[in-house]
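Reviewer has doubts. Consider these tokens.
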Amino acid sequence: MPLDRDGFALLSGVFSDVDCDRLLADWADACRIGDDGLMRSAAGTVYGARNILDRWAGAVEMIRQPLMMNSLRALLGDPFGLVRVLYFDKPPGESWALPWHKDLAIAVRDNSLASSHFERPTVKYGVPHVEAPVWLLEQMLTARVHLDEVTDENGPLRVLPGSHVGGKKAGSVANEVRITCGRGDMLLMRPLLSHCSGHAREGTSRHRRIMHFEFSSVVELPDGYRWQTYVQFDSESVR
């Protein structure tokens, strides 16, 4: 399976153009209420967001799309839980970039507890985070829903195939792959996959709007830790 071998897999046509238009309209409405968790540019454009479930319950409904739900159940088992939702955009004229990294942090209720598993506590937009151990990250999965077509023009994600099996160490950039895809496509990736993205090209009119969902098959965390959010899905969720 490509996900096991490479650490990522792209599923085409998970959401239609109509779905994407509706989701973007609903998300725009949700962003009109306060600025908690929103990252805005100098021009006022939302280019990133955390704590999305606090402002937009519709994000959970996206997961009930049959192809998305069935893919997640097949990979994570039954039940599994949604543990974090993020949003990214690269607005025209206001792009940004990220260096090579792996997604090691998880959101928790309290990051001050003594632990032999969790380290490097931080607070991001009011939510405690910690760096998770490899065994936990290996039981997590990220789903990135692309609400725009992604080309070389709007700063696509770049990944290192197979780097998810190297623990927290970065892989060699010699074999990087650029993830270009259609609107409504969904990228599945393991948190330990090395990835980065560059700036969108100057003068582009393209957005790169993505809903980023993180899931885990682990319900109970060790050392008294608790997920900041855990929305459980099981066989009843697809009925």
Notes: Residues 135 and 182 are 33 Å apart (CA to CA).
